[in-house]
Amino acid sequence: MSALAPALGLEPLDVNVPSRLSPEQIVALQSICGEENVRLATFARLRASYGKGLIDELRRVPGEVGAVGVVSVIGHVVADRLAAMVATYSAGDVATAAAINLSLMPVIEGIMTRTQGVIMVKAALDLLERPGGGPLRLPLIAADETQRQQLRQELKAGGFEL
């Protein structure tokens, strides 16, 4: 990965995702990315990195670590708030950026911790009656009614009217 990125003109990118990988899969990923770039934190989050430029919004306002934006599954639901968070931080308003980040926590929890993120994004888009929801492609399956009800509550806690 390190050798290909410059040749392809790619910018450095950190990816910090919830780990659902087995120890064998982590070892395989380490063999691809380099052992120093893939590690499992004690709080069960896999961190695979190439360079420095992005951080998961669960941890901090991205600008606090030098990031200039986010790559985010939840962006399908809260792109406006992610953009506002980045813009306010860039303008020097750290307090507002941190407040926006904090307001996103219920949405992040609802989408990223119950099952696979795409499943819950589709469910959220359906609940919000927005384009992009609808059926999933196999092997993914739709959120069940219990997951949808919990997501509904988390979206409400995150500021959505349903």
Short description:
By secondary structure, the protein is mostly helical. It is 46% helix and 9% strand.
Describe how the helices and strands are arranged:
Layout lengths: L3 H5 L4 E6 L4 H11 L4 E3 L4 E6 L24 H16 L3 H10 L1 H8 L4 H11 L17 H13 L5
Antiparallel strand pairs: 1-3, 2-3
Helix pairs in contact: 3-4, 5-7, 6-7
Distance between the termini: 43 Å
Task: Please tally the β strands and state the result.
Answer: 3
Largest sheet: 3 strands, antiparallel
Overall, the morphology is flat
Task: Describe the structure in your own words.
- A hairpin with a 4-residue loop joins strand 2 and strand 3 (45-50).
- A 3-stranded antiparallel sheet has the order 1-3-2.
- Helix 3 (75-90) packs antiparallel against helix 4 (94-103), helix 5 (105-112) runs antiparallel to helix 7 (145-157) and helix 6 (117-127) packs across helix 7.
- The chain is built from 7 helices and 3 strands; from the N terminus they run αβαββααααα.
- Among the domains are: 12-52, no CATH class; 114-149, no CATH class.
- With 162 residues, the chain is mostly helical.
- Helix content is 46%, strand content 9%.
- It is flat and about 45 Å long.
